[in-house]
Amino acid sequence: MKKIAVLGAGNGGQALSGHLAMKGNDVRLYEHPAFADKLEKIKQQGGIELNGAIEGFGRLRASSDMEEVLEGTEVVYVVVPSFGQIPIMKEALPYIEEGMKFIFIPGNFGSLEAMKLMKDKGVRSDVLLCETDTLPYACRADAPGKVHVWGLKKGMSIAALPASLTEDLISHIQEVFPIPLHPAGNVLSIAFSNLNMIVHCAAVLLNAGRIEGTGGDFRFYTDGITPAVGRLEELLDAERVKVGDAYHLGLIPAVEWIKKAYPVDGESIYELLSKNPVYAKHGSDAPKTVKHRYVTEDVPNLLVPVVSFARAAGVETPLTDSLITLLSAINGDNYLEEGRNLSRLGLEGVSMDQILEKIS
Question: Cα(339)–Cα(334) distance, rounded to whole angstroms?
């Protein structure tokens, strides 16, 4: 049994905390006081009910008191959208204890920005920051304290910052983690491997009329991924892999990653997503607006760092640049300026070799 904190009571946070509690761990679930109403039902019933691919009830403690949640905790899973990672870390700073392991699920370059935050605030250096490339589950909270899990991934990748500590991290948490963990080369290879940037952003742009015309009344991954949409996503993916090659990341193309993660066959993104049983059977799930987290989270926190690292390496990414420009224009935002560029990650003016040395 381990003492575990899960920060964030959204779909993924509830699923993970409930599942870890089912495995016999001492789990504490945190949600910001502004959203504390989410926790009332969980407190009343004493935990979280999971159904679907996982059936059971996980007994845990839920609280909006960060000090109470973190006290004596060994492992802290940060399961919030990218834009919430740094605000929740700022809340946690006064209560961080020696040797804690903070794991961002998914990371989306969050460990690098958190490292800069901790350095700027003079927080102890013996805290381990880590990140994964995705969530273990495809899931949705039907109600507070009740989560439907459509499926579990067959495995996911993880890396510590620095990467030399990744194997030790996995040995510490694998026994109670829901799915197999695979060591990645470093946190850059993890962040570059989050395929939300490939699957979500282009599909929202190319389905913009359908989204606004129907209010999202269609199956995003099934109906929204047509052969043309899938083809653009494959071309964007090729740019992602090319930037990864410049940093010696050895990235897996999206087609291969999807085949490893899900029980589905096919040779194109269109075939693998439109026929994926994990997503095809739960009805309309498309965004109701173009200003959805598939854009507002994935563009500034995934696509922007990719093009930022690309420019530092002298790699051209014309399609990704265009996608960021178009979605910024449609939503009236400046994602390049607001997103996780190298300045926000504490890497502005740092050479490629120095970046790789920092994360190794």
Answer: 8
Which residue shows structure tokens 């854009």? 295
Options 133, 200, 237, 292, the catalytic residue: 200
Residue-by-residue DSSP string for 131-169: EESS-SEEEEEEETTEEEEEEE-S-EEEEEESGGGHHHH
Calculate what percentage of the chain has a pLDDT beyond 90.
83
pTM attached to this predicted model = 0.88
Residue-wise pLDDT tens digits, 234-260: 999 999 999 999 999 999 999 998 888
User: Which residues are 61's β-sheet partners?
Assistant: 28
| Distance separating alpha carbons of residues 285 and 283, to the nearest angstrom | 6
The verdict on whether 298 is a catalytic residue reads: yes
- The gap from C-alpha 71 to its chain's centroid, in whole angstroms, comes to 25
Taking the CB of residue 6, how many other CB atoms lie within 10 A of it? 31
**Angle ∠(277,279,284) on CA atoms, nearest 5:** 130
Strand, coil or helix: what is 326?
A: helix
Separation of alpha carbons 103 and 79, rounded Å: 8
Report the SS3 class of residue 271: helix
> Could you tell me the domains of the chain?
3-191 (3.40.50.720), 195-359 (1.10.1040.10)
Instruction: Express the helix, strand and coil content of the chain in percent, nearest 5 each.
Output: 50, 15, 35
Looking at residue 22, its amino acid is M
CB atoms within 10 A of CB 301: 28
At residue 8's C-alpha, the angle toward residues 4 and 11, to 5°, is: 105
Q: Which residue has the tokens 């890396």?
A: 159
Band of pLDDT at residue 281, cut at 50, 70 and 90: confident
Cβ burial 196-232 (10 Å sphere, 16+ → b, else e): bbbbbbbbbbbbbebbeeeebebbbbbbbbeeebbeb
User: Maximum CA pair distance of the chain?
Assistant: 55
Instruction: At 133, list the tokens.
Output: 């490339």
The count of residues in the chain is 360
